[in-house]
Design a protein that fits this description.
Blueprint (H helix, E strand, L loop, with lengths): L5 E4 L16 H11 L3 E5 L9 H10 L3 E4 L4 E4 L2 E5 L4 H14 L2 E5 L4 E3 L4 H7 L6 E2 L11 E5 L2 H9 L7 E7 L2 E6 L4 H12 L6 E5 L5 H6 L2 E4 L5 H6 L2 E2 L7 H8 L5
Parallel strand pairs: 1-2, 1-12, 2-3, 7-8, 12-13, 13-14
Antiparallel strand pairs: 3-4, 4-5, 6-7, 6-9, 9-11, 10-11
Length: 264
């Protein structure tokens, strides 16, 4: 294994335990140790910048983390500036809005710095608990770029979405909550963002590493040079990982970086 130049970290259940709002003290220590070796620590998340947990925001500020793959690779940022972005077109958005209106489905636009919903609903509030605040602004897309939707449907309703013919080959839905799916471009993934960022920064993909736990990390693991799965990662990710470490509570990130000889 080559010493990585960039290490990408998923947030939920990797850097941070969402259910208990827990971020281990070993995480900032690991970030500092990486930076001391000239290795770039990066966030790679399905969340938008607007939806980063408070403890992750504190980590970013305290340790000066500068590279972000967000919204499943749809909006990426380095040193405060967009590096590679993939917004939806107004025509696509209006086509989906018409579909959702026919079915009575609620949704949230995901922008780079804000989330905006067509209305407020109990199902929406439950799904977004612990994710971040949103505003009610059905015409948000006319004024700000939108990178994906959060669509509030259950698995039975997802069948109707798939059968609608509106997704085609260009869009896909990825479930992240019993009541919600991410709806984004079929090419959208953390992998897409990582490829474009590494190209812009001149970093070979085989000199990158990633830590993750979930299904939206699968494409990322197929792209980076070395993948480390957390102790409670989904089986699909474990099958792709070159190494499996402990859980968040077991200081899995710090332990793996030490075991692999990346930090002392």
């Amino acid at each position: 294994m080559k010493t990585p130049k960039i290490i990408f970290f998923d947030i939920d259940e990797t850097l941070y335990r969402k259910s208990s709002n827990y971020l281990p003290e070993s995480v900032p220590a690991a970030i500092r140790a990486l930076k001391a070796r000239g290795i770039i620590p990066a966030i790679a998340t399905g969340r938008s910048l607007a939806a980063l947990p408070a403890k992750i925001r504190e980590l970013v500020a305290a340790e000066n983390i500068e590279l972000f793959i967000t919204i499943n690779g749809q909006y990426n940022q380095y040193r405060g500036e967009p590096l590679a972005t993939n917004p939806m077109s107004i025509g696509e958005i209006e086509r989906f809005n018409a579909l959702f209106a026919r079915h009575g489905w609620d949704y949230t636009y995901v922008g780079a710095e804000q989330m905006a919903s067509n209305r407020q609903s109990a199902r929406m509030d439950e799904a977004l608990a612990g994710i971040g605040p949103y505003i009610v602004a059905p015409d948000y897309y006319l004024h700000q770029p939108v990178y994906q939707y959060l669509l509030y449907i259950d698995p039975a309703e997802e069948t109707a979405l798939n059968d609608s013919g509106e997704l085609g080959r260009d869009y896909h839905a990825m479930r992240w909550h019993p009541f919600s799916v991410d709806l984004l471009h079929a090419d959208g993934s953390k992998a897409r963002g990582i490829k474009r960022v590494c190209e812009a920064l001149g970093v070979p993909l085989d000199e990158t590493m990633a830590f993750g736990d979930g299904l939206n990390d699968v494409e990322m693991f197929k792209t980076v040079g070395y993948g480390v799965a957390m102790g409670d990662a989904v089986p699909e990710l474990q099958a792709l990982a070159q190494y499996q470490t402990g859980t968040v509570e077991e200081d899995g990130i710090y332990t793996a970086l030490q075991h692999l000889g990346i930090i002392a």
